[in-house]
Amino acid sequence: MRRWRSTSEAETREIGRRLAEELAPDRALLLTGDLGAGKTVLVRGLAEGLGVDPAEIQSPTFTLVREHDGRSVRLLHFDLYRLEPHEVEAAGLVEALFGPGVKAVEWAERLGFEIPGALRLEVRAREGRREVVELEQATQDSEESMAIRKVGVLGCGLMGAGIAEVAAKAGFETVVREVGQELLDRGMKRLRGSLDRAVEKGKLDGAARDATLARLTGTTELEPFADCDLVIEAIVENLDEKKRIFGALDALVQKSALFATNTSSLTVTQLAMATERPDRVIGLHFFNPVPVMKLVEVVRTLMTDEGVLAEVTAWCRAVGKTPVACKDNSGFIVNRLLVPYLLDAIRALEEGVGTVEDIDEAMKLGCGYPMGPFTLLDFVGLDTTYYIAEIMFEEYREKRFAPPPLLKQMVQARRFGRKSGRGFYDYAGK
Ligand code: CAA
Ligand code: NAD
User: Fold this and answer.
1) Is the CB of 155 under 6 A from ligand 2?
2) What does residue 21 show for φ and ψ, rounded to 5 degrees?
3) Which of 36, 162, 295, 305 is deepest in the core (most CB within 10 A)?
4) What's the 346 CA to ligand 1 centre distance in angstroms?
5) Ligand of minimum distance to the alpha carbon of 237
6) Which residue puts its alpha carbon closest to atom 25 of ligand 1?
C-alpha cells in the first residue's frame, strides 16, 4: 500500500501528475474518499500529466478524448456519488466505465462497479492535510476479475432469494435452485416483491427491475449450474445436506468454478473437504435482509487459494457489499457474538426477567439496536437459530451456545418465526 501526503492544492495536483504515468495507457483510476478532500484537484493534476488542458475539465461529469504521446487517451470523470446504480446503467455509463482508455472515476463503493486492474485510491482530509492512500488491489488483472459471469445460488429461502437478487441486480447472470416447484415459486415471489418494493420507493426504476429479472432463472434442477463460475450455497443449516449438495455439484460444475457457502455456523473446511476442489471453496456469509445489510464475511480456510480469495472479495464489492475477512471458526465474527446474545435473551425470558415485548423494547431503546432480540430471532428464523446453536454448542461445548429448551420447543411446535406466521410474535395476516 502506498500513501501520499499533501498540504496544498499544488501538492495534490502534483500527485495527480505523477499518477498519470502509471495510468497510461489503459488503466482506470478509481477515486473515493472524503468530500472536499481534493479529488477534483487530483484529477486536474492527472489531466495535466496526460497532456489535457485542465481548463477543459468541468466537474462533475466529463469525458475527454485526446491524442497523447501518439495514443488516444480518454479521461472520464463521473461524479458517481450522486447516482444510484440503475441511473449509472440507464445513462449508458457502464460501457464507458468498462471501455478502453484512461479513466478517472470518482467512485462510490456502494455502486458495486468493479473496474478490472484499476488503481484504487482513497482521498482523505485530515486536519488541513490531504492524504491519498492506495487501496488494496481487488483484482490482479482483467482476465481474472472477469472470470465470474454466471452465478448459481442453491436455495431460494430467506437468504438464497436475497443473494440471487443482489447478484442479478449487479449484472450477473444468475440461476437459483429450490428442491420443489412450490418452494421455488414462493422464493421467486419474495424476490420479485423485494424488487417491486424498491421500485415503489424510487430506489430502482422499472427498467432496471425488468433487466434484473431477465438475468434471473429459477430451477429445480442442478444441470443449469454446470457452467456457473461461482456457486453460492444457501440451503438449510445442516452439515450432511450441505456436503451432499457440494459433492453432487463438484462432479457437475466446471472445474474452474468457485464454491461458496453462506453457512452461519458450520466450518467451511468440512464443506470444502466434501469436494475435490478444496482450494476453490470459501465462505461468503451474507446477512438478513440481504438487499439491505452491507456486510459479507469472507471466510478462508487453510486450503483457500489466494487468487480465489481476491476474486470473491472483488465480487462482493461488485454486488455492493463490504467484505470483511474472517478465520474459519464456527460463527465467524458476527454469530460468535450475536448468537450467545440471542440465546441469552431467550434464557432471560425463561427466567421471567421481562416479557418478550419488554425485553425487545429495552434492547431497542437502551442500546439503540434496530430490532429487539425476539423480533430479530423471528426474523432470522427460530429453526435456523436452533440449528446454528446446536452446531456452535457441538463445536465449542460452552453453555452460552446451547439452545435453550424454549427455543427447542418452539421449533418442535413449528413456530419458526416470521416465515411460518408465528414465533415469539404472531404474524397472522401480515
Ligand atoms: N428486503 C429488502 N429490503 C428491505 C427488507 C427486505 N426484507 N426489509 C427492509 N428493507 C428495506 C426497506 O425497504 C427500507 O428501505 P428504505 O430505507 O430505502 O426505504 C429499509 O430496508 C428500512 O426498512 P424499514 O424502514 O421498513 O424498517 P427498519 O428501519 O426497521 O429496517 C431492517 C429494517 C433493515 C431489517 C432493520 O430493522 C435492521 O437492520 N434489523 C436488524 C437486522 C439484522 O440484525 N440482521 C442480521 C441478522 S443475523 C444474520 O443475518 C446472520 C446469521 O447467520 C443468522
Ligand atoms: P430458509 O429455511 O429460509 O431457506 C433454505 C431453503 O433451502 C429452503 O427453502 C429449502 O427448501 C432449500 N433447500 C434445502 N435443500 C436444498 C437443496 N439441496 N437445493 C436447493 N435448495 C435447498 O433458510 P435461510 O434462512 O435462507 O438459511 C439458509 C442458509 O443461510 C443457512 O445455512 C443459514 O444458516 C444461513 N444464514 C441464514 C441467515 C438468516 O438470518 N436466516 C443469515 C445468514 C446466513
Assistant:
1) yes
2) -65, -40
3) 162
4) 22
5) 2
6) 370
Q: How far apart are CA 271 and CA 301, in angstroms?
A: 10
User: Which neighbouring-strand residues pair with 129?
Assistant: 126
Q: 194 an active-site residue?
A: no
CA dist 176 and 232 (Å) reads 9
Ligand 1, residue 203: give the atom nearest the CA: 18
297 is catalytic: yes
Thinking of the domain 334-420, which architecture would CATH place it in? Orthogonal Bundle (1.10)
The amino acid occupying position 384 is T
d(CA 409, CA 404): 9
Specify whether domain 146-327 bears CATH 3.30.310.170: no
Kindly report, residue by residue over 113-126, the tens digit of the pLDDT.
555 566 777 788 77
264 is catalytic: yes
Q: Is the CB of 106 under 6 A from ligand 2?
A: no
**In this model, does residue 56 exceed pLDDT 70?**
no
CA of 304 to the centre of ligand 2 (A): 24
Selected catalytic residue, list 285, 311, 330, 390: 285
Backbone φ and ψ for 285, nearest 5 degrees, come out as -95, 105
Domain range annotation of the chain: 3-137, 146-327, 334-420
Question: Is the confidence at residue 401, as pLDDT, over 50?
Answer: yes
Q: Which residues make Cβ contacts (< 8 Å) with residue 210, sequence separation at least 6?
A: none
DSSP class per residue in 176-208: EE-SSHHHHHHHHHHHHHHHHHHHHTTSS-HHH
The CATH code of domain 3-137 reads: 3.40.50.300
Q: State the pLDDT confidence band at 42, using cuts at 50, 70 and 90.
A: confident
**How many C-beta neighbours within 10 Å does residue 374 have?**
23
pTM: 0.75
- Ligand 1: lining residues by beta carbon, under 6 Å: 194, 197, 201, 203, 264, 287-289, 291-293, 334-335, 338, 370-371, 376, 380
